[in-house]
Amino acid sequence: MVRLHGVGKRYGRGKPVLTGVELEIPRAAVIGIVGTNGSGKSTLLRILARVSAPSSGTIEGAPPVGYVPDRFPASTRMSALAYLRHLGRMSGVSDVDARAARLLERLALAGGPRTPIKQLSKGNAQKVGLAQALLTDPDLLVLDEPWSGLDPAAHGVLGELIADTRERGASVVFTAHDEEVAQQHASRVFRMADGVLRESAPTVRIVLRGGGDVPWTEVAARDGDQLELAVPAERVDKVLLDALQRGWSVLAVAR
Ligand SMILES: Nc1ncnc2c1ncn2[C@@H]1O[C@H](COP(=O)(O)OP(=O)(O)OP(=O)(O)O)[C@@H](O)[C@H]1O
């Protein structure tokens, strides 16, 4: 659906932020991007959302996009509902009022849909941002750190909205600071570093009890006679067999 090839970005005369990003986004994919502050995640998402142009490289495919920037910027006296109605009408959404009200209710917007946007907290403004991005059922949903600022209840709803989007055949690209959150929601996770994306292998959590040698480098935690390992998916069978042979009991294996 979208294919980025050798995408680079440089702001003015500064050092390039992106140097050669390769990324393929097929239909019904959920792609998570992690990376340190300033590594260029937001820059890449702005390019995907087409609010910024790359300095080099090519982008194939231009599906309709819904975009939530890292800070939803609307500061208006309009209510959340009036704002969404306005955007929906501009985009030709037919049942805009009902759709907007449904989305805001699902996201549990504090104060209800008639609250003026400029009075909303960061998290609640973020919910209006999510609603505007979903209003048109875009083929590509681009979410910049959508978990930041949301309360735990809204985290669950966001996970459902991402899953619903994938189920209707659309794709989602999001950034996250927490790799575990990214692995939980994405079908593939990439790490941004040195201006390029590298796929980050999913890890599997193995909890062992008992005792014996600990020959593994992947120890995540140790508590009394329990040992927790975070193991790359392709090593799970080998580590489990090894653990049993060394006298450990397997308490849990989870993604
Ligand atoms: N409009 C701009 N003009 C000049 N430099 C910019 C601009 N936007 C971003 N940058 C620079 O590009 C680099 C990457 O920024 P970007 O916001 O893409 O990183 P990020 O990975 O999203 O960071 P964070 O995790 O802190 O959100 C930073 O050094 C930043 O200062």
Automatic annotation (TrEMBL):
Q: Does the keyword 4Fe-4S apply?
A: no
Q: Does the keyword tRNA processing apply?
A: no
* CDD domains attached to this UniProt entry: ABC_DR_subfamily_A
Highest taxon of the lineage: Bacteria
Task: State the InterPro entries in the record.
Answer: AAA+_ATPase, ABC_transporter-like_ATP-bd, ABC_transporter-like_CS, ABC_Transporter_VariousFunc, P-loop_NTPase
Q: Which Gene3D superfamilies match?
A: P-loop containing nucleotide triphosphate hydrolases
- What does the UniProt keyword field contain? ATP-binding, Nucleotide-binding, Transport
A GO MF annotation of the entry reads:
ATP hydrolysis activity
Q: Describe the location of the ABC transporter domain by residue ranges.
A: 2-219
- Please name the SMART domains in this protein's record: AAA
PROSITE patterns, per database record: ABC_TRANSPORTER_1, ABC_TRANSPORTER_2
Q: Can you name this protein?
A: ABC transporter ATP-binding protein
